[in-house]
Amino acid sequence: MDGEKNDDLEMKQIQSEDISKKEGEDEKSHGPKFGKRHGQMLIYFLLILIAYSIRVNLSVGIVAMTDPTASLNPNIPTYNWTDKSIVLSAFFWGYILPQIAAGWLANRYGPKWFLVGAMGVCSLAGLFLPTMAAQFGSRGVMAARALQGLSQGFIFPSIHNLLAKWVPPGERSRLGTFVYAAGPFGTVVSMLLTGLIASSWYGWPMVFYSFSGAGLAWCFLFSYYGCDGPSHHPTITKEEQFYIENSLGHAEHKPRMSTPWKKIFTSLPVWAIFLTQSGHNWGFWTLLTEIPAYMGHVMNFNIKSNSVLSALPYFVLWVMSFVFSYIADLFVNHNIFSIGVSRKVFNTIGLIVPAIALVFLGSTGEDEHNKAIALLVVAVGINSAIFCGFNVNHMDISPNHAGPLMGVTNGASNVCGIIAPLVVQLLVTDEKDPEQWKVIFYLTASIYAAASLIFVIFGSGEIQPWNDEEKNGKEKSEA
């Protein structure tokens, strides 16, 4: 009996050692806790932070550019423009053009140098924007902003391409959200700093010089530290590289695939992403470009208070994005939700809750400042759930073609970024009339609701057959 007990104890001890050894190997197989993929994510975060700061700074900046009392310095030039909404939409004139080509080029040749060139051109256009305003008026600013939009059109397809190579599926919500949440964080930074700088002695021109300088600094950083994927990184550990590539089901040195454009354009899940992204972009850019005007003309806040209050909803959006992404990955990794269900649940939260808040905002009186601010915080802040919805769904349905997919949907859907401010200019003829703003809020809420319904019905979390079309074709021919 004693011998049997000793044998049992020895067996349990061996099993315990095996489990501990296996846990150690599993931890080792992931590479360092802060690996090279995390370092790359930080660089991408900085890129999108700066890109969004540049994209957004005109929303507050144009208030200062057209207000002689905005700056302490009486020598800062100001202008009397009646086409401000058209100026605000000019960024998207260029932005939508290169998206599809940018995704294809990034997939074909690697995105690194396209990103460096794009941010370089964007920053230089920003440096010359004050001169363009002085020489050519609002049309000069439109030209500079269109060029900035053209260059930034390369950013999101290229980043999606990089994320598809660097981020394992089990970390996709968290790391993808971390990178893309730099957008709202950049919005916060931009609105706050733009308001402070524009009201200072240096005035609104310093806004464009500052953010453009940051963009050029990022170009030098990424030129040195950026990599097109794990296999291109000179110091990544073999464990981390294997973990990333094995979890994604491929090695980067495999032959490049041709893009199945016909299958993409006839895919219901792709159309679901596109239409949902279009609805989201309509609401997002309506609020982003017009909140400062609403705060200034209906709520009567000055430029400093306006910039702080306009930034508050986007700070909440940034914070909540991490909450939603952690919960989303938790549900997927513990098999509570499938990837598809998770994307639909969080997408619905991110669109329907803001839609309800906008309905209530439309019935808010002009003297109910606190209620209006609270509803704007809810409408924008809860919208962060979409980072775990359609925003990462391209990588779910086709990791091999995530870059071109993002180019297609992001480029086409951002037509709404052009149309939405123009619709505001058409419908809001008196910026001080809350009844006219009510129409904008109700319209945006309806579009949000329709976009959410489309994704619930037609969205998918499954890898589509055309993701590995060439591989599947070879297997069939061999059979």
TrEMBL record:
GO terms for molecular function: symporter activity. It is a multi-pass membrane protein. Residues 45-463 form the Major facilitator superfamily (MFS) profile domain. Residues 1-33 are annotated as: Disordered. GO terms for cellular component: membrane. One of its GO terms (biological process) is sodium ion transport. Residues 1-11, 18-30 have a biased composition (Basic and acidic residues). It is found in: Membrane. InterPro entries: MFS (IPR011701), MFS_dom (IPR020846), MFS_Na/Anion_cotransporter (IPR050382), MFS_trans_sf (IPR036259). It comes from the Eukaryota. Gene3D superfamilies: MFS general substrate transporter like domains. Coiled coil: none annotated. It holds the Pfam family MFS_1. SUPFAM superfamilies: MFS general substrate transporter. Keywords: Ion transport, Membrane, Sodium, Sodium transport, Symport, Transmembrane, Transmembrane helix, Transport. The chain crosses the membrane at residues 42-66, 86-106, 113-136, 142-163, 175-201, 207-227, 264-288, 308-332, 344-361, 373-393, 405-427, 439-458. Belongs to the major facilitator superfamily. Sodium/anion cotransporter family. May be an inorganic phosphate cotransporter. This is Putative inorganic phosphate cotransporter. It comes from Phaedon cochleariae.
